[in-house]
Amino acid sequence: MRPAPRAGGPWPKRLTLVCAGLLLMVLGVAAPASAHAALRGADPADGTVLRTAPRHITLTFTESVGLLTDSFRIYDPGNHRIRTGPADHAPGRSDTARVALPAKQAQGTYTVAWRVVSADSHPVSGALTFSVGKRTATAAASVPDRTENPATAALYNIARYLAYLSVALLLGAGAFVAYCRPPAPGPLRTPALIAVGTLLAATVALLLLRAPYEEGTSPAHALSLSSLGHTATTRTGELLLVRLTALLPVAVLLVLARNRRAPRRRRAVLLAAAVHAVLLALTWAAAEHASAGIQVPSAIVSATLHLLAMAAWLGGLAALLRMPHRTAPLPVTVLTRFSRLAFTSVTVLVLTGVYQSWRGLGSWQALTDTTYGRTLLAKLAAVSALLLAAACSRTWTNRLARAGAAAGKAPARVPEPATGPPLPTEPSPPAPPPAAALHLLRRSVLAEAAVGVLVLALSTLLTNTLPGRVALEAADSGAPTAGIPATSVSTVPFDVGTPGGRGKVQITLDPGRVGRNSVQAVVYGPDGGLAAVPELRISLTLPARRLGPLDTRITDRGGYWAADSFDLPIPGTWTMKVTVRVSDVDQVTTTTRIRVPR
Predict the structure, then answer these.
(1) Distance CA 199, CA 160 (A)
(2) 74-110 burial, b for 16+ CB within 10 Å, e for fewer?
(3) Helices 266-285, 150-175: inter-axial angle, 10-degree rounding
(4) Which member of 6, 77, 146, 502 has the greatest number of CB atoms within 10 A?
């Protein structure tokens, strides 16, 4: 019969490679974090034409937002930034952001770029336009695309992933030792120390990178005293400081506790450990999705229980794999207790997961029509595979428990002497678990742990995704979705191959979404100045649906070309075809691709 593999055998190494590959895959393909507050409305509204210049610009969001020192950037029709005072909230409205405008603004189209921080700690950015007196074709719509710094966003997201993984390993190892009571928990001390150290480093990184992440600046601003001071006054910064405070005594105890015997006051130690675990979980729940939206108190309790159950299950699996199985086989009672712990954790995960999914989605439509819903479907598929592996593990554990019970009840065979009293009965040594069942159990636990890492990665991605309820609410309100520019601006270069026959066409679709749009096009010559051409045609085609070409029917408006009404029927990546005629015989056609959101 094939013996069970050692803890340092090939299977743990393969598991490590699989887990590392999954994490690197998620980190490599993860898109920039989506905002969790959506723009519900704006005053003035996007694309409107006003008779007189407004005194204030007010944005209303689906949840409370925090303001930055540079929350508004406003550009006049000449693409010059307007000096404004600091942004503030409307009286009694924490879900608004507004800024006062100077008096006597010129006629033309203005562009507003904004950036705020949603209540669940994620930055929100976007842009919109409005016009005073009349619309003008200017370069004001080409606002620099600096919604976030890629290096800062990547470092911040990596720190968040490591923090989630570390807290799962730390709390899971603690739950395994406290409830399953392995006879020699010494092998878990090193992983626990690594988890605490990684979690401390990740928390410090999150604290330093918080201000650059909110403002969309480079990591070089992380050590700025003003940035650190601002972070310490925000709710997210306060929760990170609480996390650090709770971790420091845990790290000290793990360093000091080598191979000492268990303390006499076991209940007091377990109570203190449980309080620390809940406190750590709250630092995540109070800063993520649960902290904003509907039923906040219930959501925070649910998110805390969800994180604790996830840690007890996945971290417990890692602890179980870390324990030696060949040199010192685990008693069947340890495996049985872990099976009960895993079953309880799964029950809590299912109940809290159903509630959080309902709260985040709000409708069946959001399950397929939003990024949050599609990510949730992927997580549900992974969880189904995880439950299947867990069921296999529980089956083999029950078989081992029954085999151990049967072995314990079997009487020992004692030889009977020919004469005299019978010899005393000696207790039989405990029979080790059947090697085949133990080997199959270990394989199912390895598969369970590998799929668990994928579930953990998808859970982290969900915290970075705009909830489906909020996305549909913003879409129904007609406001542009946060993070997506309110207008689509494309610059198409052309060259007809003749002297002076070069230039570019700047094309603006307003609002650049499905439905009715206005089209404006300006032609620039080789010197960068405005150029007049005898003919300009623009059409759009959606190859994926075999739709088009749709002619925009733009006309010359004296200096620029425009069409007041052009309908884009469905979202997708459209191909824009631009034909420029610079003389009676010279013309050129070029194409570009634009994304049209819902």
Answers:
(1) 9
(2) bbbbeeeeeeeeebebeeeeebbbbbebeeebeebbb
(3) 160
(4) 77
State the pLDDT at residue 259: 47
Kindly give, in sequence order, each residue whose CB lies less than 8 Å from that of residue 166, ignoring residues fewer than 6 positions away: 195, 196, 198, 199, 202
- Spatial contact of 86 and 40, defined as CB atoms under 8 Å apart: no
Whole-number percent of the chain with pLDDT over 70: 74
Handedness of CA 290, 292, 297, 299 (dihedral sign): negative
Which residue do the tokens 């009840």 mark?
409
From residue 50, give the alpha-carbon distance in Å to each of 41, 53, 109, 142. 17, 7, 10, 21
What b/e readout covers 422-435, taking b as 16+ CB neighbours within 10 angstroms? eeeeeeeeeeebbe
Q: Return d(Cα 552, Cα 537) in angstroms, integer.
A: 8
Instruction: Identify the sign of the CA torsion 213, 218, 220, 225.
Output: negative
| pLDDT the model gives residue 538 | 92
Residue 576, phi then psi, degrees to nearest 5: -95, 125
Q: Is 467 exposed, middle or buried (0-12, 13-18, 19+ CB in 10 A)?
A: buried
> What is the C-alpha end-to-end distance of the chain, expressed in Å?
61
Amino acid letter for position 285: A
Helix (H) or strand (E) holding 219: none
Residue closest to 172 by CA, chosen among 153, 151, 195, 149 = 195
pLDDT band per the 50, 70, 90 thresholds, residue 329: low
Residue type, 321: L
Structure tokens at 88: 């503030």
